[in-house]
Design brief:
- It is a single chain.
- It is built from 6 helices and 17 strands.
- By secondary structure, it is α+β, with helices and mostly antiparallel strands.
- The chain has 3 domains: about 55 residues, no CATH class; about 100 residues, Nucleic acid-binding proteins (OB fold (Dihydrolipoamide Acetyltransferase, E2P), Beta Barrel); about 120 residues, no CATH class.
- The two termini are about 35 Å apart.
Length: about 325
């Protein structure tokens, strides 16, 4: 909350109803008066909004200041931040889980996807919930606003919420590939074999299955999430099986739409992956290597192809 031209305080609100009202004021950049706040005994410059607090429109003698309102952090600063701190970050998406994970909360099923982002200082996991999932793609860069710092198994990560804003920005080329999260997953490899096919995937959980592909009826019931949808509403997912040579070993890896699009981006090929002929794409993969890529060794997945002039920052 901005309290003067150059000062602000952190306000914690637990009421969904009051959060919606505050979010509306935030979107409109309109001043607000809050009666019934409590100052934190343990954290400096932090207040909480009580259950009986009243929120109303108001007038203030100072203009809205983007700099004061900004909570922009580097990813290294996020890893050093306090639990539940609100942060904004500018980062590049390195990897993103292909299937949505169902989570039951208060009797309702919500979906989330884990994602790995990086900047010039560090890399960190971010949990994308519900609508935020479709707003993010591998190899693109974004300005994430209003994320929450959380922790699981002693590892900090960032969490989206109802107030999170995600905007695509210009590519961030300088990323720290030597961070502990990424260091062992960046390889230089040559593609020596490729098979590419298009498969139907569930609209809800994004699962790809031979059972889905074999359905002849107008409706499809996903074997993973059990949700029934119209066949016409399912998505076509591109699946590519790569035979790649890493050092002296030949291994099989899988990559999906976003990873394949990142390959085309690396070689400055303008045709979208959905429009390119399979034979043309296979030829490009086999004749324009070797490449540096981010992989998941345990799942045998290629997350992203990196540009040949990708600048790697080193941790200090």
């Amino acid at each position: 909350m901005q309290t003067s031209e150059e000062e602000s305080v952190r306000m914690v609100c637990y009421s969904p109803e009051k959060r919606m009202k505050l979010q509306q004021h935030f979107k409109n950049k309109s001043p607000v008066k809050i009666q019934g706040t409590k100052r934190s005994r343990t954290k400096d410059n932090e207040y909480s909004i009580s259950k009986t607090a009243k929120i109303a429109s108001s007038v203030v003698p100072f203009p809205y200041n983007d700099v004061t309102a900004s909570q922009l952090h580097t990813l290294k600063e996020c890893l050093e931040a306090r639990l539940y701190d609100k942060v904004d970050v500018k980062a590049r998406v390195i990897s993103k889980s292909e299937e949505k994970q169902p989570v039951v909360y208060q009797g309702k099923t919500k979906y989330k996807v884990d994602c790995l982002i990086a900047d010039a200082t560090e890399s960190i996991k971010i949990a994308l919930w519900e609508d935020a999932i479709s707003k993010v793609a591998i190899s693109k860069s974004y300005y994430f606003q209003n994320l929450t710092v959380r922790i699981f198994d002693d590892n900090k990560y960032l969490n989206t919420n109802e107030a999170t804003i995600i905007d695509e920005i210009a590519d961030i080329d300088k990323i720290n590939l030597s961070s502990p999260t990424l260091e062992d997953n960046v390889v230089k490899a040559k593609c020596i074999g490729v098979e590419m096919k298009k498969s139907l995937s569930c609209l809800v959980c994004n699962c790809t299955s031979e059972e889905i592909e074999s359905f002849a009826e107008t409706t499809i019931t996903c074997p993973n999430c059990k949700i029934t949808t119209l066949r016409s509403s399912t998505k076509r997912k591109l699946v590519c099986q790569l035979l790649i040579e890493i050092d002296d070993s030949i291994l099989s890896f899988t990559c999906f739409n976003d990873a394949m699009q990142s390959f085309l981006k690396c070689i400055n090929y303008q045709t979208p992956i959905q429009s390119i002929e399979v034979s043309e794409f296979q030829k490009l993969l086999l004749t324009t290597g070797p490449y540096e890529m981010v992989v998941n060794r345990s799942q045998r997945l290629v997350s992203q192809f990196l540009k040949a002039n990708q600048q790697t920052e080193t941790s200090v």
